[in-house]
């Protein structure tokens, strides 16, 4: 992995910022005509999200994104709306902004559940493939409504269908516990269900949103609790802007990792309407970014997502992160995020963490810095469950533990390898909170910034 301060050649991998959950005017609302009973409802463009595809893409570039996915959700006959109207706008935006890798996809209306980002590879078949998937499996596609389309078993069928394409799409679960009824409780989706998704199509289902969108939501007269809370999480709040599945130490994310899954987390805007115009959202890239280590081309960005070469950050807290772990004396290449490293109980691990905070003000007008970085470890013993009690903070690093190297800060550490397979991951914050606190309605999201790395995997031998 290139050093954080280097500027690699255009054909080499580097950190690319993106957002895989962005809505346009084609996330329509639907209105039935009382004078035409029995006829499909009419889509009202701009009814649920306000901005054209091109404007979303332009704002993504303005806020430093290198890639974006246009993801509209559906309704009766929406697959044809996507085909006839959204697709040409994506093509036009690609032509207007050739320096942005713009993927075509949708916020898939999950059978038996809520939503997931569907990202299609950029190729000659993408327009037809999306229509096939949405027409065949989108739970809201049929008119009249067909309850047989809205079952969890149907989602497994959909995933298996997606997996059969020569270059399959990617599915990322969106706002995983937004429908939860309390801490440690789940709503429409459980960790076990996500495990079933992954088992059905491991090259399609890669992870979940760690930091959901709608982070600019604020209490307003006439709104319920959910619509005035960060992320629109009314049943169980986000913690430091992150879903409880991720932010709870030893929680659901660690539970999935402990089962041996490669499970990547991301961060998005879920942009529908900007906060300055009465919405609950930031523009793509304005607040949250998903960083992928890849070449600036679609296929390698998708490979980076699948491989877990990913970290996420809010509020511009960091814009580079190198995290490598080496087995001292083994001769192995050091493992980076998404990689595996063979270890045994006699192995000593040498780790390097290199991060960079931007020297310029973020979109909120502040120049921010990292208060501390946590090195987190967990065992991967294959046991099923919604949590991982082996997860622990191995060490907390503060400014006394890192050294300046150009524009970056470097931390080096040593630790013995665990006796069993496991993983190491990082978490950092602009705050001095030992654990991310539950978010309260009306708080300023710019004062509560976090980053998370995806894991380095340790394989016991």
Descriptive account of the structure:
It is a single chain. The chain is α+β, with helices and mostly antiparallel strands and about 450 residues long. It has two domains: about 15-315, TIM Barrel, CATH 3.20.20; about 320-460, Immunoglobulin-like. The protein contains eight helices and 21 strands. The protein has a 15-stranded mixed sheet that branches. The chain has a four-stranded antiparallel sheet with strand order 12-14-18-17, with no helix packed on it. The longest helix has 19 residues, at about 80-95.
| Helix proportion range | 10-25%
Mean pLDDT metric? 95
Identify low-pLDDT runs: none
The count of DSSP E runs of length 2 or more, i.e. the number of strands, is 21
Strand content: 25-35%
Radius of gyration: 21 Å
Distance between the termini: 25 Å
Query: Can you tell me the overall shape?
Result: globular
* Helix and strand sequence: EEEHEHEEHHEHEHHEEHEEEEEEEEEEE
In the CATH hierarchy, the third-tier topology of the largest domain is known as TIM Barrel
Organism: Blastomonas aquatica
Protein name: Phosphoesterase
InterPro entries: Pol/histidinol_Pase-like (IPR016195)
Please give a quick description of this structure.
With 461 residues, this protein is an alpha+beta fold.
SSE blueprint:
Layout: E1 14-22, E2 29-31, E3 42-44, H1 53-62, E4 67-72, H2 78-96, E5 101-109, E6 115-119, H3 126-137, H4 152-163, E7 170-173, H5 191-200, E8 205-211, H6 244-247, H7 252-258, E9 264-267, E10 288-294, H8 298-307, E11 310-314, E12 320-327, E13 340-343, E14 348-356, E15 372-379, E16 392-397, E17 403-405, E18 408-416, E19 422-429, E20 450-453, E21 456-460
Parallel strand pairs: 1-4, 4-5, 7-8, 8-9, 13-21
Antiparallel strand pairs: 1-10, 2-3, 5-6, 6-7, 10-11, 11-20, 12-14, 14-18, 15-16, 15-19, 17-18, 19-20, 19-21
Helix pairs in contact: 2-3
Protein name: Phosphoesterase
Organism: Blastomonas aquatica
InterPro entries: Pol/histidinol_Pase-like
């Amino acid at each position: 992995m290139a050093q954080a301060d280097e500027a690699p050649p255009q054909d080499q991998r580097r950190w690319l910022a993106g957002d895989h959950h962005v809505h346009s005017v084609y996330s329509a609302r639907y209105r039935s005509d009382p004078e035409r009973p029995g006829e499909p409802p009419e889509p009202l463009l701009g009814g649920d999200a306000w901005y054209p595809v091109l404007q979303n893409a332009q704002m993504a570039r303005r806020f430093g994104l290198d890639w974006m996915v246009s993801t509209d959700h559906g309704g009766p006959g929406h697959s044809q709306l996507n085909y006839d109207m959204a697709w040409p706008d994506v093509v036009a935006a690609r032509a207007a902004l050739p320096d942005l890798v713009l993927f075509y996809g949708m916020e898939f209306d999950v059978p038996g559940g809520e939503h997931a980002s569907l990202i299609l590879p950029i190729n000659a078949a993408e327009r037809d493939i999306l229509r096939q998937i949405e027409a065949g499996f989108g739970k809201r596609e049929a008119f009249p409504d067909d309850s047989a389309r809205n079952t969890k078993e149907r989602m497994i069928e959909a995933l298996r269908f997606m997996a059969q394409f020569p270059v399959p799409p990617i599915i990322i679960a969106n706002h995983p516990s937004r429908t939860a009824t309390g801490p440690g409780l789940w709503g429409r989706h459980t960790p076990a269900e996500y495990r079933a998704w992954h088992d059905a199509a491991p090259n399609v289902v890669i992870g979940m949103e760690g930091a959901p969108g709608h982070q600019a939501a604020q209490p307003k007269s006439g709104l319920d609790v959910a619509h005035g809370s960060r992320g629109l999480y009314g049943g169980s709040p986000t913690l430091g802007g992150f879903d409880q599945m991720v932010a709870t130490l030893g929680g659901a994310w660690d539970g999935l990792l402990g089962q041996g899954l490669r499970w990547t987390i991301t961060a998005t805007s879920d942009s529908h309407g900007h906060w300055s115009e009465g919405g609950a959202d930031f523009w793509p890239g304005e607040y949250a970014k998903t960083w992928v280590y890849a070449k600036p081309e679609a296929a390698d960005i998708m490979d980076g997502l699948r491989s877990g070469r990913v970290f996420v950050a809010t509020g511009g807290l960091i814009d580079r992160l190198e995290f490598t772990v080496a087995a001292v004396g083994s001769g192995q290449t050091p493992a980076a995020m998404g990689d595996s490293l063979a270890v045994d109980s006699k192995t000593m691990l040498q780790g390097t963490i290199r991060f960079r905070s931007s020297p310029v003000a973020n979109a909120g007008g502040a120049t921010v810095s990292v208060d501390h970085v946590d090195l987190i470890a967990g065992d991967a013993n294959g046991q099923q469950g919604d949590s991982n009690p082996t997860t622990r903070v191995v060490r907390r690093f503060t400014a006394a533990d890192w050294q300046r190297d150009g524009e970056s800060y470097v931390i080096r550490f040593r630790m013995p390898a665990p006796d069993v397979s496991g993983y190491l991951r990082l978490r950092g914050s602009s705050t001095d909170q030992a654990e991310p606190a539950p978010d309260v309605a009306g708080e300023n999201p710019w004062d509560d910034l976090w980053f998370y790395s995806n894991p380095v995997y340790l394989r016991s031998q």
